[in-house]
What does this fold into?
Amino acid sequence: MASYCYINGKITDSKNAGIAINDIGVLRGYGIFDYLRTYDKKPFLLNEHVERFQNSAKLLKLRIPLSKAEIKKIVDKLLKKNGFKEASFRLVLTGGPIVGNGLEYVESNPTFYIIADKFEELPKSYFEKGVKLITLEHQRIFPEIKSTNYITAVKTQEIRKKEKAFEILYTKNGNVLETTTANFFLVKNNKVITPKKNILMGTTRNFVVKFTKEKFGVEEREVKAKEIDTCDEAFITATNKDVLPVIRIDEKIIGNGKVGKVTKELIKMYNQEVKKNLI
Ligand SMILES: Cc1ncc(COP(=O)(O)O)c(C=O)c1O
It folds into this structure.
């Protein structure tokens, strides 16, 4: 089945889409992206994703050739034209073709495209049984920017598979940060705790923090890796993972190795809140 994307002002069959071979995004890794999904065929947190994309662009001095309203319109068109049951969208922006000394680009000539794909849900059993993480000492470069640089994440997939882990949890100087593609939370004495520095501010993280605050209280702060040893529950959040329970980190079994009651409640609340926020 053909899939349609947006590139260079047009919606086209993805097979016919391409970028310049001297794009600074490819040659120097100078690019950003954002990733969102639909529920009930409606793009979820579209505003938040576009705003984060705009912020990443600003921090790297990249120019998005379209306004927020124009991007939203294209996402809508791609959604209708592709006809996926549920869809994901990846907005991608680079500096465009390399110029000058090979480390420069022309701000007015960016590469911008939007890929639409069928959205694949994670297996239900992951939410019922929880997943395993393994830790790695690492911090993403410019962590608050959703850059296209996932070199460490890609390179460590072999280790992740060998260890039968779902994702890798990054730690740095004794602090827990985030996983390869998700934000990290602990639960201790019914309080929900999550890092707030040197991470990507996840749209799902922020959404979860908002509705969790009233019911359980949330501490957004530096989280020590040692706190894993004494926590009651853990979970991760991301656009394509919702609220996903974690029951093991390296050799440490979290709680009693089963999905904890706060996490269960948050999964339920998440599904309800998503429904309320679909427009
Ligand atoms: C490094 C990193 N942190 C956190 C997240 C979670 O962000 P979001 O909830 O906006 O998907 C992602 C998502 O891909 C990510 O790549």
